């Protein structure tokens, strides 16, 4: 399942940048994997993607909890957001 499929499944629209994403041409890779191997496979595609920064920013802004976005796993994003919240509290 790619991001467009996921967006369609939850009734969301697909951002314009996603039409240029490397995952659009890789329907064989699951971007909502359930194990580390799946995450690594998705991250390989993201590493070659020209819109990875936009993708990651979108996922962080929208608090996307699942899947690989911008080459980052859900665990990475959760840790990043937690650290950002701690920094805001201590500033
Ligand atoms: S960064 Fe990864 S998930 Fe995001 S658009 Fe590119 S290939 Fe798809």
What do these coordinates show?
The termini are far apart. With 91 residues, the protein is mainly α. Helix content is 51%, strand content 0%. The protein has one domain (3-90). The protein is globular, with a radius of gyration of 13 Å. The longest helix is centred in the last third of the chain and has 17 residues, at 74-90. The chain is built from four helices and no strands. The structure holds iron/sulfur cluster. Iron/sulfur cluster is lined by residues 3, 18, 21-23, 31, 45-46, 49, 51-52, 55, 68-71.
Please write the string of helix (H) and strand (E) elements: HHHH
Number of domains: 1
Using only C-alpha atoms, the radius of gyration works out to 13 Å
- Which stretches of 5+ consecutive residues score pLDDT under 50? none
**Helix amount:** 40-55%
User: How is the main sheet built?
Assistant: none
Distance between the ends: 40 Å
Defining key terms:
91 residues, 4 helices, 51% helix, binds iron/sulfur cluster
Task: Briefly summarize what is shown.
By secondary structure, the protein is mostly helical.
Topology:
Layout: H1 3-10, H2 36-46, H3 52-61, H4 74-90
The protein binds iron/sulfur cluster (SF4).
């Amino acid at each position: 399942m790619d991001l467009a499929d996921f967006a369609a499944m939850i009734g969301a629209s697909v951002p314009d940048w996603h039409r240029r994403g490397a995952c659009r041409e890789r329907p064989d890779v699951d971007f909502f994997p359930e194990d580390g191997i799946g995450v690594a496979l998705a991250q390989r595609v993201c590493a070659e993607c020209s819109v990875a920064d936009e993708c990651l920013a979108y996922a962080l802004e929208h608090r996307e909890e699942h899947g690989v976005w911008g080459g980052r796993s859900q665990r990475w994003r959760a840790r990043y957001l937690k650290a950002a919240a701690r920094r805001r509290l201590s500033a």
